[in-house]
Amino acid sequence: MSDIPSVETSPATVAAEPGPFPVPEGKVALIVIDMQRDFLLPGGFGETLGNDVSLLQQVVPPLAEVLAAARESGLLVIHTREGHLPDLSDCPPAKLKRGKPSQRIGDVGPHGRILIRGEYGHDIIDELAPLDDEIVIDKPGKGAFYATELGTILREAGITHLIVTGVTTEVCVHTTVREANDRGYDVLVLSDCVGSYFPDFQRIGLDMVAAQGGIFGWVADSAAFLQALKQPVLSA
Ligand code: TIU
To answer: Ligand 1 centre and the CA of 171: distance in Å?
Structure first.
């Protein structure tokens, strides 16, 4: 046993609901979910489902700021894209037929074949384009863990805490948050960096995460997260 006392450090914390969310050094990843042209631009998948895609634009400026700060702080940054192989072999028939969209997955739209990997519309918007060394996960489902390498990547990187952003709040963000929570991750959703085509779902979707003492995770706005990234790591 050494006589030298070990130095304990306490991580920075984000002021969040239902309580402070720790940001332990080297254990936090930023996940940016499905900020694809197909969901944000007119003529994409989101619009074919009958949605007003302009509602999602407000997410872009705060998320761009969070992305820049995460890169500067050295957080692991992971982007996801929802979509399918050109032959649709990874698209369940039920998903293909669901709803009454004006065009279906795989049909040709103004941004290429809708929700198909490799097409212009499937890729991430220019404002949030991944850097060459950042991870991009292609997922066939709404959740980022289902049928992807995300769990392995996080485990191998020693990640325990996730900052979740992207679209849409009640669909791919919620599904991913629930998947992560069941796998033992602590998850913080940034309220102004997630967006929905439905204002009521946005509000209630966020409430659902942090209700019951944080049944799925924590919620804070981007200002609180950016503030925490500036906090020094304190020695106890
Ligand atoms: N329709 C809708 O709100 N969302 C999706 O289909 N996918 C994602 O949320 N990414």
So the answer is: 5
Determine what percent of the chain is predicted with pLDDT higher than 70.
Answer: 94
172 carries an active-site annotation: yes
Q: How far is CA 224 from the centre of its chain?
A: 17
Q: Is 139 a catalytic residue?
A: yes
Q: Output the CA–CA distances (angstroms, integers) from residue 222 to 66, 70, 85, 101, 156, in the order listed.
A: 7, 11, 34, 33, 27
Q: Could you tell me if the CB of 172 is within 6 A of ligand 1?
A: yes
Q: Is the pLDDT of residue 98 over 90?
A: no
Give the mean pLDDT of 115-127.
98
CB neighbour list of residue 139: distance below 8 Å, 6 or more residues apart: 80, 81, 82, 83, 146, 147, 148, 150
Q: Is the CB of 171 under 6 A from ligand 1?
A: yes
DSSP 124: B
Residues 199-213 pLDDT 10s: 999 999 999 999 999
Query: What phi-psi label fits residue 88: left (phi over 0), alpha (psi between -120 and 50 degrees) or beta?
Result: left
Q: At what angle do helices 222-230 and 60-73 cross, to 10 degrees?
A: 20
